[in-house]
Amino acid sequence: MASAGVVNIRRDVDDKFYRYKMPILVTKIEGRGNGIKTVLSNMSDVARALSRPPSYPAKYFGGELGALTSMDEPNDKYIVNGAHDNARLRDLLDGFIDKFVLCGSCKNPETDLFLTKTEDIFRDCKACGAQTGVDMRQKLTTWIIRNPPKRTKKKKTAENAENAGEGKEGEDGDKGGEGSDDDEFTKRIKAEAAELPTAEQAAASGVAGLSLDDEGSDEGGDSPLEALTLWIEENKSKDDGAGLTPQTIMDKTAELGIEGKHKTVQTLVESLFTENVMTELKKYMPVFQKAIGSEDEKNQRNQKSLLGGLERLVGVNYPQLVPVVPKILMEFYQNDVLEEDIIVQWGTHVSKKYVGKDVSKKVRKAAEPMLKWFEEAEDEESE
Length: 383
Prior knowledge:
InterPro entries: ARM-type_fold, IF2/IF5, Transl_init_fac_IF2/IF5_dom, Transl_init_fac_IF2/IF5_N, Transl_init_fac_IF2/IF5_Zn-bd, W2_domain. This protein is an alpha+beta fold.
C-alpha cells in the first residue's frame, strides 16, 4: 500500500514499490440548494503528479458529470457545480488518467501531450518512445485544442507526428526519421500556448476587446468563446432557459466581441443544442440566420463552421442524433442558413478538422439522403 495521502497513479497496480505516485484527490462540498458545489481542494497537486495542467482533469470532471466547472488558476481554485461523491470523482480521475495520461502502448504514465498540425492529440511516452493518439471523440479534446499543453522537452520530428496522425490512428507513430522542423514545431506550440490568456486575464483586460480574426487564428480569442459557453450553460439551468432567447444570445456575442465570427457559430451549435435539437432548432434559428448573413452575401466560412459544430454535436456529444442528421440539415437549408453547394461539398469530403476520421465518415454517411435529394432535384430540373 502507498503511504498515507498518496496512491499509485495506476490504482489497478497493487505494488508498494510502484514509482509513479499521486496525492489522493481531496474534495469538499460547499453551499446548499442551487448554490451547492464541489471544491477540488488539491487539484493542482494531483495534476502536477500527472504532468498535466489542472484545468484538464477539472474540465474532464465537468464534461463527464454534465456540470459547470469554475476555474481560477491564479488563486488555485477548481470547482464543479453540484454535490458529487468523492469516490465517484476518484473513479472519473482514473478515467482521465487512462485516456489522457497513460501511454497507449506500455501504460506508463510518464507521457507528454502534444498537438499535430491537424489538431490531433498524441501522448509521447518517455519510457517506451511510442506516440499514441488520444480518442478525439472525447469532450475534453475541444478544451485541450483551445488550451494546448506546453512542450516541456524536445519531441520527435513534426513529420513523424503528422505521419502518426495520417497513419494508424490511436496506434504507435513512426519512430524513425530525422529533420530540422522539430525545433520550429515545438517553438510554435509553446508560443501559441503562452499567448492564450486565462479567463481571469481576459476579464481583467476586458473580454470585449478580444476577438477571433477572419483567418481562423485564435490568438487571444478562446476566453470569449469559453465565456459564451459558460453563459449559455448557466442560462439553460435558469427557469428552463426562458431567458435564453435569440436576442439575448446575439447581444451576448456582441458584448464579448465575437459576433459573426466563424468559431462563434461552431460554439453556438455545440452549446445551444441537446438531444432535443429538432425542437431547439425552431427556437434558435434566428441566431444562425443572423450569423450567416443575407441572401445576397452569405458567409461561407460560418456555414462550414456550423457544419463542424454539427459534426461534434452528433458525433461526440449526442451520438444518438446521428440518424436525424438529414432532418437537421433540412431545417437549416429550408431556413436559408445552409446553402446546397456548401452541404454537398461538406457531405462528399471527409475531414478530421472537428472530429476523428471514423466519426466524420459516420456523420456524412448519415447525411446521404439529403445529398441524394439534392441530386434527384437537379436531375429533374435538367429534364
